[in-house]
Prior knowledge:
The chain is mainly α.
Amino acid sequence: MSYATITEFRAGIPNRDLVALTDLDDGTGVIDDTRIQDALDDASAEIDSYIAKAVTLPLAEVPRILKVICRDLALHRLYVNIGHSMEARRSLRDDAISYLRSVARGEAALGDGGSVIAPEITTPGIAMTEGPDRQMTRDRLRGF
């Protein structure tokens, strides 16, 4: 199952670009949805390989961020398939993979607020009210 649909993928890309990315064999000028679906499936498999340790697959509901990442990875794959290696596309892919690695390490959440992660307590909750005199005060720094 792909995290993004063909319709979602096509929504943000002009038709002329989709033709250039997918009409590789016969040159009819028609968008090849099979190539798009293959790229989406490959992108989804790549996403699963990163998040499988952090979440139970398949997901009941696909978070919006995974749809965005799936589209970005699929677009990168289509550009690579036609021989383009554009820096902007590589940057999108690198950012997506970096985010997925953060999810795998437990540093980022997937949901749109669906899963709540308990905040980590960083201090014992004790306020320090007594201590040594301050070294830097307005009077001591006067003239600097």
